[in-house]
Amino acid sequence: MAVYTDVSDTDLNSFLEAFDLGAVLSFKGIAEGVENSNFFLKTERGSYFLTLYEKRVQEEDLPYFLGLLEHLSARGIPCPLPVRARDRKQWRSLNGRPAAIVTFLSGLSPRKPDVQQCGEVGAALARLHLAGSDYLFHRANALSVQGWKPLVKSCEPRANAVAMGLGQTIVSELRLLEERWPAGLPEGVIHADLFPDNVFFMDGKVSGIFDFYFACNDAFAYDIAVALNAWCFEPDGAYNITKGRALLSCYRAVRPLTGAEVAALPVLARGAALRFLLTRLHDWLNRDPRALVTVKDPVEYLTKLRFHQGATGAASYGWPS
Amino acid sequence: MAVYTDVSDTDLNSFLEAFDLGAVLSFKGIAEGVENSNFFLKTERGSYFLTLYEKRVQEEDLPYFLGLLEHLSARGIPCPLPVRARDRKQWRSLNGRPAAIVTFLSGLSPRKPDVQQCGEVGAALARLHLAGSDYLFHRANALSVQGWKPLVKSCEPRANAVAMGLGQTIVSELRLLEERWPAGLPEGVIHADLFPDNVFFMDGKVSGIFDFYFACNDAFAYDIAVALNAWCFEPDGAYNITKGRALLSCYRAVRPLTGAEVAALPVLARGAALRFLLTRLHDWLNRDPRALVTVKDPVEYLTKLRFHQGATGAASYGWPS
């Protein structure tokens, strides 16, 4: 949780002159998002979010991300819609950073998703995949197997300080995934970070999907594997197969999976667990104690990885046979 | 800036069952306020703020603070109005802390108040003093001269690490203020912390005054002295007498000052500067590098104190002769 960049009233007012949103009624830094500075913005026209992109999001990726939000919104996905400036730009500069205004989404993120919510998010993910299938832009997944190698290399020497044997685990897991990583699965735009805190619910239904700043083109089934990791484990580390079954069966009711996708689920789930284990481990080992950021525990994903290592097939995740 | 206490969707929904606000549309931790956890809350009924009182605010003081907001709101002061629960309670428990919901105020806080804003805030402060004059409850100022003594005692041994000679300065300044502190000035409810970030403006007018958690009964002129410190110095440390004149003349146009109040301004300004110097110094010396809080620079108030030490009378602050 953090606001990195402070925006003064005068800076805000001159920024907003480029938009057609009327006078500002309220502007508040939001204590969420660890990558960007986020603000709640209320104007005479309505409620919005203003995001200042800090160093992790590259300005050259913004056409992909913001264009995707427009594309998905037009197809009925409840995601934020960028508010273009009077000159039609999707973002402009504020305090030396690219800054975009998007529409406000209603809803609450579930702290502990229940079975019904897991089903709803499965269906929403499938709708997202279908809606994005004709998106024309392309962005590679920087955090797939090739991207894990430098993370393993930089984390391995100090990983055992976090958990006994973790250094060896990430090295051998990477090696195994490099060998077994599937190719040729159905691909398209994936969210790649669909955690409960990136989804809103209202009245039990998905009312918002957001934080698309890891979105990229990759296998749809990898996105499912990320979601299984993010939604279907209990706080004690146990996999909840009932939640997994709900997520998978609601997904496939919207977009059927190929046999190859089903067969690949265990290895994709291992990969997804390693991806979050590595980025959290990297952030943990390189955390700045002065920064206003809560660093997430990497060990949670080591526990999940251990489960996936023991999985015998898609049935282990609740795939309905 | 900080959110100390995290509130889950389920905790929030059960808390709100006690209120008549309809379903939640949005709930966001706000990155402001260093003493409490603050959330933006949007429901079917409107926009609100939810505050969880952390350790600094004592639950036994809440009737004074929240009752004051009701009292002032009823008299037209643009401050937050507590939303009472169905059982008429002004606050209830959430995550083990007292929690209150108040109405949402529109406006922006000025980063660099201009002369006109200094005048407006002077008039608003005078209206606040008049509106609070018939408030029945009483709360002593815990951060007046008696309250500074333990702060001086605890900070003095390490103060020179912050600025050369600071230890001696706070000891001698406290001694002088103990001797010269005025008694018998007109008293009533004062805000006691009226900084620009506790005031909203819209269209050049004061649209909101908030953060009353230092409010207490004390000399009105001391509140003016706090405001002179908070509003009328430039970032380089220079006192801006034009801003001071605007603040003072707009104040007295609403509530005339007695001769004793005018004469006391320099010593009250010294006291106000010492008060913020001491609390900032205390926070600085005892800061927790892991806490998600930005500690304010105490030296800013040493500079202000030096100005006040050289003041020859109210005219030094722009008091219109």
Describe this structure in words.
- The structure is a homodimer of 321-residue chains.
- Chain A is an alpha+beta fold and 321 residues long.
- Chain A has two domains: 9-103, Phosphorylase Kinase, domain 1; 115-317, Aminoglycoside phosphotransferase (APH), C-terminal lobe (Aminoglycoside 3'-phosphotransferase, Chain: A, domain 2), CATH 3.90.1200.
- Chain A is 41% helix and 15% strand.
- Chain A is built from nine helices and nine strands.
- The first copy, chain A, has helices at 9-16, 62-74, 115-132, 145-159, 166-180, 220-231, 241-254, 259-285, 299-309, and strands at residues 24-29, 36-43, 46-53, 92-94, 97-103, 187-190, 199-202, 205-209, 216-219.
- In chain A, the strands form three sheets. A five-stranded antiparallel β-sheet of chain A has the order 1-2-3-5-4, with helices on one face.
- In chain A, β7 and β8 form a beta hairpin.
- The longest helix of chain A has 27 residues, at 259-285.
- The radius of gyration of chain A is 20 Å and the shape is globular.
Question: Key features?
Answer:
homodimer, alpha+beta, 9 helices, five-stranded antiparallel β-sheet, globular, 2 domains, Phosphorylase Kinase, domain 1, 321 residues, two-stranded antiparallel sheet, Aminoglycoside 3'-phosphotransferase, Chain: A, domain 2
Please give a quick description of this structure:
The structure is a homodimer of 321-residue chains. Chain A is α+β, with helices and mostly antiparallel strands. Chain A has helices at 9-16, 62-74, 115-132, 145-159, 166-180, 220-231, 241-254, 259-285, 299-309, and strands at 24-29, 36-43, 46-53, 92-94, 97-103, 187-190, 199-202, 205-209, 216-219.
